[in-house]
Fold this sequence. Notes:
Order of helices and strands: HEEHHHHHHHHHH
Distance between the termini: 74 Å
Number of helices: 11
Shape: globular
Radius of gyration: 23 Å
Low-confidence stretches: 282-309
Largest sheet: 2 strands, antiparallel
Number of domains: 1
Structural class: mainly alpha
Amino acid sequence: MRNALLTFSILLLVGALVALAGSQGGATLGGFPVFGLVVALAFLIQWLAFIPAYLFQTEKFYDLTGSLTYLSITLIAVFFSDGADARALLLAALVIVWALRLGTFLFRRIRKAGKDDRFDEIKPSFIRFLNAWTIQALWVTFTASAALIGITTAARKDLDLFALIGFLVWLTGFSIEVIADAQKSRFNADPANRGKFIRTGLWSRSRHPNYFGEILLWVGVLIITLPVLHGWQWIALISPLFVAFLLTRVSGIPLLEKKADARWGEQPEYEEYKKFDNVIFSYSCHCEERFLRRSNLLASQETASLCSQ
């Protein structure tokens, strides 16, 4: 209990510090910074959603609430930021499109699965389950910080090369994520693939191409925001860094890799797949495999040549 309460306090403190830093030089509403207000709203939405979730012991609308939070705070940030320009509207559009797509995908997945076993142990505990929702508020804050700062800042600049490059990077990442999710959904829907792991399409290049796309699209958002950042607003750099850290070190890849190892770890094909495939991205695992096989062949030929001398 003590550790859970300490965690809750730390989460609030970190959220407050990000809100304070990102609010510098930004739009205000009634004397309060708009950026700080939308960060506070992100936490409030999670806590309100937590109440029925705890009472009914369900996590089924956890991911959906996260997506709705992105939509809500982004729209509010645009509406209450004076003189929202083309850059701000572009950032808002990218976040909204991403949130709608991901929220729909995750909600369908949880409805099909029936539950998310990550919450089995913590749901009965009020403070631990509350922390899970508070963490989501901080996740939304960190992830969307670059876009929200770019939307609420008082510094305005016309669309430029940064905006174009950032948009193209975002589009590339978004496309990779959408295609990877669609490929895996089709694979899992085929009864012939029951009990198998996917290693076709983008999944032949990476064990987690959807995560690669996710990281890339938030890098694109940051690039669009760069020209209008100043002072403490550079806290926006935390956006793609946090996404990358979360997915590769905390709740993304580590959990999925552990499950995959438990399910397919004894299968030679899976071990082969792990050996020749990158966790996030590989230019071509097939080329690497051919190179290694060729190296082994050359080594064998050289050994045979020496033995014959």
